[in-house]
Design brief:
Elements lengths: L6 E15 L2 E14 L6 E13 L11
Protein name: Vancomycin resistance protein
Organism: Serratia fonticola
C-alpha cells in the first residue's frame, strides 16, 4: 500500500526565550519543520514555521533565564 519514504522530517524550535511583561513571565518560541531528502548527503527541500508560542509560564523559571 505505501512505498518507502523518499523524504525525512525534522521538527525543532527557534527563537526560544523567557520574557517578563506586567509582572508575569512568558515563554516565546517558534516550532519549525524541515523536509529533507533521505541519505547521507541530504538536502533541505522545504522549511516552514508550524507554530509560534507566546504564553504565560505556570512554573518557576530561574531569574537569570528571563530577559
Amino acid at each position: 500500500m505505501f512505498g518507502p519514504r523518499t523524504v525525512k522530517y525534522h521538527i525543532y524550535q527557534k527563537s526560544h526565550r523567557f520574557i517578563r511583561r506586567q509582572q508575569r513571565v512568558y515563554r516565546q518560541n517558534e516550532i519549525w519543520r524541515d523536509i529533507s531528502t533521505k541519505g547521507q548527503d541530504s538536502v533541505v527541500l522545504h522549511s516552514e514555521r508550524l507554530y509560534q508560542n507566546d504564553v504565560v509560564v505556570k512554573y518557576d523559571v530561574e531569574e537569570h533565564r528571563v530577559e
